Amino acid sequence: MQKLTITRPDDWHLHLRDGAALKAVLPFTVRQFARAIIMPNLKPPIRSVADAACYRDRILAAIPEGQQFEPLMTLYLTDNTSPDEILRAKESQFIKAVKYYPAGATTNSDSGVTDILKCDRIFEAMQQVDMPLLLHGEVTDNDVDTFDREKVFIERHLIPFKQRFPNLRVVLEHITTSDAVQYVLSANTIAATITPQHLLFNRNALFKGGLRPHFYCLPILKREEHRQALLQAATSGNPKFFLGTDSAPHTRTSKESSCGCAGCFSALHALELYAEAFESVKALDKLEAFASFYGPDFYQLPRNTERITLSKTTWRVPDEVPFMESGLVPLGAGQEMTWQMV
Ligand SMILES: NC(=O)N[C@@H](CC(=O)O)C(=O)O
Ligand SMILES: [Zn+2]
Ligand SMILES: [Zn+2]
């Protein structure tokens, strides 16, 4: 196959940041995707409908002249979010989900939820108005091994949670383990996003010939058997699994540090990365539904009608793209790719 034409996809998990960073990265996403679910973990986080409205305006203002893009906004859940804010969010129309970060689990999650049991009134409101809940599904307990934090979150928190709120629609974000795949398959009203890094790399990538901070994201890359389970899920044609890049830009200096930030930047070449992953298991025919159909179906939004084309061309991922004061290193910098968006 030399060309692959599919419906224009959407990114169901994206970090755009703000200010100059937003202006630098947004054009990459706009080139590939029609819409994206915008993560609210700014400093300070997007906690109210008013915050989300202002942030949405800043995103709209940063869209390059003459191009189309629809930011789908989210609210950052805290211990103090009120059920009324959920009702207002639903009425706003432009807020499509509420994001749950366990406090301290990942980048800018300090104001996240300290105990999932404290938020039952909010979850009741969400279930009532059918507002989806997006989960960063990791426990933060120091006595739980970093590589087990997703699995333990599912066992300790998600399974009991889903029993309390069976009708609340949930997305388990950026899944990284076969345990997550199994759980999502077994439960109702739950879907999952899968990133390009978790489909293409296992944890060896973090240590190849030395410490590789640009492969460090959360949840952290896992063993090969988990990567295989994710690849199988993504290419299975099951609508519970759809595209969410988790493209999370950090400056080169903040990643190449004695305490480097978590996050991989993939907005530059997200579709190409997914195409490589799908082709590796001869499943390119499953890419369109994963990238362009199952996400809007879950969010009850219309599928896009425009089409985009990838062509079989060899090219090299640049070492860096311009970003803030120290540049931005894309996922797989320097590696050869065999698909390119036209
Ligand atoms: N995935 C990451 O490693 N980082 C994300 C936060 C997140 O999605 O957990 C970020 O905002 O940098
Ligand atoms: Zn996360
Ligand atoms: Zn993320």
UniProtKB/TrEMBL annotation:
Pfam family membership, one: Amidohydro_1
Binding site for substrate: 15-17, 41, 136, 218, 250, 262
Listed GO MF terms: dihydroorotase activity
Record keywords: Hydrolase, Metal-binding, Pyrimidine biosynthesis, Zinc
Recorded superkingdom: Bacteria
Family affiliation: Belongs to the metallo-dependent hydrolases superfamily. DHOase family. Class II DHOase subfamily.
Protein name, per record: Dihydroorotase
Species whose genome carries this gene: Nostoc punctiforme FACHB-252
Gene: pyrC
